[in-house]
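Researcher: Predict the fold of Rubredoxin.
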Amino acid sequence: MSKYRCKPCGFVYDPAKGVPEYGIEPGIPFSELPDDWTCPRCGTSKWMFVKVEED
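Model: Structure tokens for Rubredoxin follow.
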């Protein structure tokens, strides 16, 4: 599963970790997050995230 980075603030959504404090359990791919999900750090839209390229 790919990680995604918030363009405005740099927060990285890692599906292996999820964001349990915001109700997103580990194992949920970014594509399955609700359309109205926002960055837990800066509140920007899900559409402002970009896929993190793997090394």
